[in-house]
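[Discussion] Sanity-checking designs against the backbone

I'm trying to build intuition for which residues belong where. Below is a structure token string of 261 positions. I'd appreciate it if someone posts a full sequence so I can compare it with mine line by line.
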């Protein structure tokens, strides 16, 4: 059995933006460079217009039931099914849409009249399920871009990302997500350990009703900070934020009760 030797990921062929001709080839290479940029017009107005026209024809042909069953009756359901599938597509995220708009404005790969499609933000759909990055991920990406340090850029880029273009910076989303997860885990650990340590010191070394009153205030403040951080730093739903905050508060209360005994 033959085995493939000498292959490394550095030999992977990468579509470079600068190697493509200006125009639709370069625009296609840019959109293809990141799955998040795969956004196109769904032509909602045209589809609605065609459906209305088809509806008008069907109203005129209501008296010809046999003809509808043999021709229009087979065609119309498929069009409604296509319309339903198109409605299932989500809109691109604001960040990804802004990236495509900026590329069109700065590079101008095609004439302005033909690039106006990207301005129809209400009519755009993302072929890939769009995921809005949370606050922490956006801050990491903005900070790395603002600091403009080579070693930071290398951390959040792979060889393939660097080979895509010499003018644009592509960050590896999985690395940004892992970094954001690590930072959030550190913050949660601090928010859990710090109030417990303060309450422990106050109850053991100070004691009395004043210490317990201060601990209640610390628990309230810590719970408030935890809920705010959970809401800002993640894309969690309100029900998920409420559940996480309740669990966090329960841990602090149980600890305070255990110290008191």
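Best answer:
Here's mine. Compare freely.
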């Amino acid at each position: 059995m033959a085995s493939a030797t000498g292959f490394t990921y550095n030999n992977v062929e990468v579509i470079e933006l600068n190697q493509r001709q200006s125009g639709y080839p370069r625009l296609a290479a840019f959109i293809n460079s990141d799955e998040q940029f795969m956004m196109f017009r769904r032509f909602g107005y045209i589809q609605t217009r065609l459906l209305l026209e088809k509806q008008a024809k069907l109203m005129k042909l209501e008296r010809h039931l046999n003809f509808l069953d043999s021709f229009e009756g087979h065609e119309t359901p498929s069009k409604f099914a296509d319309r339903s599938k198109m409605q299932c597509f989500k809109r691109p995220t604001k960040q990804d849409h802004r990236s495509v708009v900026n590329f069109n404005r700065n590079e101008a790969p095609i004439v302005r009249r033909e690039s106006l499609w990207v301005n129809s933000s209400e009519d755009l759909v993302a072929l890939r399920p769009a995921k809005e990055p949370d606050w922490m991920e956006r801050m990491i990406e903005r900070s790395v871009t603002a600091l403009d340090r080579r070693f930071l850029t290398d951390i959040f880029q792979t060889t393939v990302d660097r080979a895509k273009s010499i003018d644009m910076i592509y960050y590896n989303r999985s690395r940004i997500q892992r970094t954001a997860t690590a930072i959030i885990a550190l913050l949660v650990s601090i928010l859990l350990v710090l109030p417990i340590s303060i309450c422990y010191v106050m109850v053991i070394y100070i004691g009395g009703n004043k210490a317990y009153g201060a601990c209640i205030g610390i628990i309230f403040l810590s719970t408030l900070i935890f809920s705010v951080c959970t809401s800002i730093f993640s894309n969690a739903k309100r029900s998920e934020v409420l559940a996480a905050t309740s669990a966090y508060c329960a841990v602090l209360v149980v600890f305070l009760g255990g110290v008191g005994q």
